[in-house]
Amino acid sequence: MTNRLTGRNSLRGKVPGNHHLDDNLLEGMRKRKKSRGFTLVEMMVAITVILILTGMALPIYSHTMARKKEENLRRNLETLNQMIYQYTQDRQKPPQALGDLVTAKYLTEIPEDITGSVDTWVPEESDGTIMTLDQKDTGGMIGVHSGSDKVGSDGKAYSTW
């Protein structure tokens, strides 16, 4: 039966002689409707906690990623400089460019600088330096440095590593 004032079905009076049962039934229905979702305050608290945790984790993640890039740069510098030295030892002359290391199969490819490019390496040109007693030619490169102008976590510019 529809209540004329509210337009809702009313269960009052349907169970003869037990109005207390009707009140409990209606109260139970009201409670179920209220407990179906989260309140706005609960959602705001949950979002705030998530944002605080994210705010704490982001700097840690960023610092870790910067460290990984620096470790990769150190490895790449070490590899390139070792291969330049090895090339010079084997051929009695230093390479003219990094591409010579790939052509001679000392490297499969030129590794990336910390800038993310393979074109930013700065060669350290030989100024008559002899790296081996059998060396015939002193022209060419004797090492490389990063072409980045940024400063590492140790306070030194990447180009000085």
Layout: helices, strands, pairs:
Layout: H1 19-34, H2 40-91, H3 98-103, E1 122-125, E2 141-145
Antiparallel strand pairs: 1-2
The structural class is: mainly alpha
Question: Uncertain runs with pLDDT below 50, 5 residues or more?
Answer: none
Number of domains: 2
The dominant shape is rod-shaped
In N-to-C order, the SSE pattern is HHHEE
Number of helices: 3
Number of strands: 2
| Radius of gyration, in angstroms, nearest whole number | 37 Å
Quick summary:
The chain is mainly alpha-helical and 161 residues long. The chain has 3 helices and 2 strands; from the N terminus they run H-H-H-E-E.
Description:
The protein has 161 residues and is mostly helical. It folds into 2 domains: 1-58, no CATH class; 72-160, no CATH class. It contains 3 helices and 2 strands, in the order H-H-H-E-E. It has helices spanning 19-34, 40-91, 98-103; strands at residues 122-125, 141-145. It has a two-stranded antiparallel sheet. The longest helix has 52 residues, at 40-91. The protein is rod-shaped.
Provide keyphrases for this structure.
2 strands; 2 domains; mainly alpha
